[in-house]
Amino acid sequence: MDPYGEDAPLVDPAVFHEWIVQEDDDLLIVNKPGWLVCHPSKNGPMSSLVGVVSEYLQASKIHLVARLDRETSGLILFAKRPAVARKFQMAIQQRIVKKEYIAILDGEWTASIHVDEPIARRKGGPVIVKSEVSYDRTSQSAVTEFVPLISRNGYTMCRVFPETGRKHQIRVHAEHIEHKVVGDKIYGPDETLYIEFIEHGWTARMEAALPIKRQALHCYRYVFEFPQCPISFVAPLQQDMLSFCEDYMGLSPEVVRSHLASM
To answer: Which fold has domain 98-263?
Structure first.
């Protein structure tokens, strides 16, 4: 079954073990694929990451420290105890955590781009969940740094550092600087692709418009700067983004991994 079809497949418990980045008595760190929702869905426990983790841990209640959009891959942290969840959630609220994403954006450039522009839910338009840079009273401050790694063949792979944590922040700011996240169904070339995807799954029109089946955005690294003992986690880039780099940018997986390892 196509993971980007109308109904995403259920997770195979045997495959889930391959997603685990780290596990100890306090935390379970997972490298989420870009087709899986975080929160429980109507299709049962194996259709969402929270459901899969609940089954894996045999726990009636688990603690999701921070979520990702369905089509963003990468690091997800689960705490096994409430006290541990509070510790890491407070770190995020107090901004003593640094998040780093890897994104592939349209266009080529070589200098870092700093974006300090407020974000709000857009009023009107066909996609009600879409946000935009806005200066009205509902806006929230948002700051993002885009640092290019490799530019080639009309695309740039970059490191992205969101200093704030607004919904869709990286994608909104990427659209604002006119370097959209490749494969983005909402903030990409045509937002009606998102509606079509929700109603019909992956279609021929999307195949023609989008070079990858989901947004090329990956939560790569967390660094929690606790005074006593800083902690960091890294999630390797998913295969679909590596394949895009090879097919469209002429970069082998080994070259991409080498660049990431040198950071």
So the answer is: Pseudouridine synthase (3.30.2350)
